[in-house]
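Hey team,

Filing this mostly as a record. A colleague (T.K.) asked me to run one chain through the structure pipeline before their review meeting, and I want the input and output archived in the tracker in case anyone asks later how it was produced. No errors, nothing strange. Just documentation.

Input sequence:
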Amino acid sequence: MLKEIEKLSPEEQEQLYDAPVMITILIGGADDDFDKKEREKAAELASFKKLNPDQPLIHDFYRVVELRFEQRLQHWLGEYPRLAEIRNPIIAKQLEQLNAILAHLSYDLQVELYKSFVNWAKQVAEASGGVLGYFAVGTEEKPWVELPMLHNPAEQ
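Output structure:
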């Protein structure tokens, strides 16, 4: 799978590998309170995703994401505006660019990455809400959690 990603330009590769970080900031910071539970959940997801036996196509992708996750998270947190109402439209526009990048990959890889990104967003959203911190998406996160800026390749 990495060979397929390596065919992308260095800039496209960077955008693709940064997608989970951007999704984390988009969702975790949607309420202007990017809390410890959301950060921890995202770091856990980076590790878990590479081990998930249900998605073998993306193991290598998440190995790379895990290695650079914390460093890239700190980088992007320093780059983006602090207020979600300003920051989230910027991130959404950047994530929208993934549609063209994903189109260069095999259909199966597109589908797996898309599903994993949406699942990532949902899990970050649920990290600090609901019963004992699980199973709830806040009102600020709700418009973003389905990642409406990304096209579902399975529906095209």
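Quick notes for T.K.: Residues 2-155 form one domain. The chain is about 65% helix and 0% strand.
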